[in-house]
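Hi W.,

Here's what went into the run:
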Amino acid sequence: MKESRRDFLCRSAAALSMTALATQSGYFNGMSVLAQRSVKQPKSDAVPADYRAMVCIFLFGGNDGNNLIVPNHSDANVSNYAAYSAARATQGLALPQASLLPISVPRIGGLTYGLHPSLGTVTGGINPGIHPLWASGKMAALTNVGTLVRPMTRAEYQNGSVPRPRQLFSHSDQSNQQMNANAGEVTMSGWGGRMSDKMSASNNPGRLVPTVNSIAGERIFTIGEQLLPLAIGPAPTPLSSILALTGTTGSAAANARYAALNGGFGLSAANELETASNAIHREALAIAGSLNNSTDVTVAFPNTGIGNQLKQIARLIKNRTALNMNRQIFFCTLDGFDTHSAQLTAQTGLFTQLSQACRAFYDEMTTQSLGGQVTQFTLSDFGRTFNPAGSGVNVGSDHAWANHSLVIGDSVIGGDFYGMNTTNGTPFPTLVQNGPDDADMGGTARGRWIPTTGVEQYAATLAKWFGLEQADMGYVFPNLGNFAQTDLGFMLP
Amino acid sequence: MKRLISAAFLSLALIASAAAQDDPNPNSPTPVLLSAAETGRVLAVEPGDFNGRLPKAAKTVFSAGRDSEAVLFMRRLPLIDGEGANAFRVYVKQPNGRTFELRSDEILPTGRDIIALRICICDVAGYRGQPGDTGDSWIYVTWRGMASNPLKIALGSQGGKIGPPPEFAAAVPAAPEFVGYRWSGDRTRFLEQATFGPSAAMDDRIRRIGLRTWLAEQFEAPYPYIPLPDPPQMPTTPPTDCQAGTNPTCFRERYSMVPLQQWFFREAFYGNAQLRHRTAWALSQILVTSGTTTQQSSHAIAYHKILNDGAFGNYRYLLGDVTLSPTMGNYLDMVRSTKTNPNENYPREILQLFSIGLFELNQDGTHRLDGQGRSIPTFDQTIINDLSRIFTGWTYCNTQACGNATPGIVNYKDPMVLIPANHDLGAKTLLSYPGAQVTSIAACTNCTTDAAITAYANASLKDALNNIFGHPNVGPFIGKLLIQHLVTSDPSPAYVGRVASAFNNNGSGVRGDMKAVIRAILLDPEARGDVKTAPRYGKLREPVQIVTNLGRLFPAKAYNGIDPSDGGVSSYVAAMGQNPFYSPTVFNYFMPDHTIAGTTINAPEFELLNSGTAVKRTNFLYVLGFEGLTPNATDALRGTSLDYSEMIPIAQGDPTAAQLVDALNTKMMHGTLAPAHRSLILTAVQAVPASDPTLRVKTAVYLIAASSQYQVQK
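Here's what came out:
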């Protein structure tokens, strides 16, 4: 009884949504997934046979990559542990060498680097973390990557001869540029959304939800020039009730109330804010029915913010067939990385959450036999100063620029560093303040590494694996032509 | 056209019968865009063809582009000082459904009965795409929140699939009243902007004394009505008898924001000094600290007290008090900044978020541009480095010199004090701008004693804050943020300019007078009027405002319907994306420049609205409106429900329910409920048996509150 009523309501919501959209010439005309489906005929030859998904994990606040990956060797030809320790130990920001989780880096002659200790087995953990995925070749690191309009040397940065990204070191601007992959401009769309613009009609012709799903709001990464994401809340709320209305069943009065509510969202409005609000409500009610009968995941996820977001994503993936999805882009976030102080404690907690959640997600994908079809990757606002801020238990670091990112999945050619070489001939920066990779100059230079790899090179490599056509690369990554290498080689074909 | 004329006539009639009030008729006339004779096309010419007079014939086809200009004509309007081209927004709606705001450049001298406006047929922002030569498009103008008639303009060519003209809400004033401040629509709108929601008592008060006097009364009103909680400061490590596991009540009261949240909602529901409460809440979203970092309720309350006290003071003092607040010091790390390790967090955010922003502004809030048309950054890393060094050495006052210091407990109640040995003594450079009084601080030459260093550090702090406060950006930057929090998301530059002008000079030569700023914001002609018709006017209600507005319209009670609410609604508000006093970052719950996804509409609060939270809003309204918030949730001790007793008699004995819906239309929507929506709601209410008037009221209130028409405050 209850189920059939809900089915009925969802059908009527969908029908209403279509009618309302058909009678309006507002912005949303081309944007509803349902309206799209009704007008775009699939090119049957273009629909992929396999399934692939990209999962963006945005580490808000600016993660200190200098403590994510640390030299764990004594080779003096490249920055070694002693160089790291010399700069960070006095103020208490250096991780003890014995605590580092060793990783071997073939790209740098097999030298050993170390991951932050929280990325492995931890007290109270529910899985071994992500560190073991390095040795098994399922996790890679992108080193010294960041926002760039085009590559620049230290001299070019200083003399201003090459355009810099807008508003370096500002959270809002830099996180937006990570997500819009267009560091020279303010834009209103991001690279996840623009990929969906180009790929939705051909890859997901029968989709019941948008190609981009966010568990963390409509951030710029998720917004296209034409298409919008679905944004819903995290687990533990089950998918079947994440968009379900309260109090819409039972009596004739409840039926009438629902009809008026839904009808109100379908009216055309003179005010454009109302029009926008109506469209969001309509979309929610229309999609609710598609999430009705979803099945749950089997692997245990940590009960944390990021754990519950990735769990919700894993559920959506598990229900991909019912939702008619062949290509999906997901967005979730972990906040709290703006560690101007008390960084050791904060980062330990955050990395523990990240590692436990990413590992659970990886294992769940393996269980779903999708290990090679789903790739997780991290972005963050920016890196942080190599030179610590403060000292003792309060020690932290300030806003900087280039950073390290992690990519996880069975299609990742893991166990190595990727990205363009820095001045030292390796992809890892020279850890010297006022050194060859520092944007700062002089005696007060604090070690803000100039990126050698642009976000778009990193992103384009993922996009190519995901199936974005070469012809559409320029639409999604407008500055990609400024970079010589557009496939960094960390993904299997 | 007929309705435009009747609206103009009505407002004239209202002027003629104005009572002896300080407040003038709040309604601005509707702008009328002139058309080429009888064609429905806009009368427009190229600037080169304009000779100072109304042209006899229009140019028929324009092209879109950054170097394409046009002159439009409007009927004369009662422009006030400072209302130039920046008082007008020009929009073009293209056949593909996209709307662009065109650049409004200059009012050209012309005869007295018309206004000639030179525009560029290009998007004002530059990054939102540009209109194209797609044939006929609709063009219209807005002024003070009022939309003109839409007319056709040919871009590239005439014809094409233009679609129906955009419809704007008819500007019909509410039923006239004959005593006092009679504009009932404007009274309701004013109370939505200046308070946490209209109440019958305040509406009555304003009707009797008018807006200006009400503001004066509010500036002096005793505050708070509900005493601020005063929990003791606790050790950083919770003692065994106050831990989450052993004594969750103690832990919640001392080590969470819950006491502040509950007080906040109770004061919003029941307090009289609404303007101060509302302003302090807006300030708490600009000068952000957060329970994500702030450990104890006592720390957050000490900080909120600074905002309460400073809400009607001078922004310079507020900035000073915030800078030396230990809660802010801890949140943005100034408390740990020393000369050997200056911390950049507070210096960056005081500039980027609390005072001047990232780009140089004109007084009307638009970006100043360099010779190549680019925005000009207000500061670079050098300024951050030097400001960091100025802010070194300040920390908690844990000595007996401070009254609230207790041994073994970190003191967040007294302002931070200087540790002389930690203060940087070198020379520093400050912001440089026209009119800057002090642009550098010399190295200290006599800092051989603690007293000398302390004097130097205090003088440096004063110079630096004066230097920041004196920057021409502060008025438009802070003024626009406050407008966005109180009135409308995308104010016209002219409105921002008027508020900035009040910031720059309160009329007595004082800069930064918050009373003058608030008065300017709330009495501005763009804020005032019974109805606003501009399609981008207004703001999405943030979750906090949804709860408080309903709790004041239908007086909030406890779950039992008898006692007062304890204000424990935060967990519900948090589910809609806004956990009060737990902003996710220093960037607040939403960004002031947020643009609604897929559109060019600037609307900050929309950052909180997506499919997931939209359903949460609707479901919250169901639970609050029909059932009440139950007492057993963790922070809802007595629960909260709405009292409909004023409405129930109206619902009784009227099977059509028209009286009820019309009364709610007046109360909740100041008469602007769309007729089609009204009939939908009537049908639903009529489906409830007339014998159950309470359920009828709940149904009607829920349907109005859940509608986008209500959710967008305008």
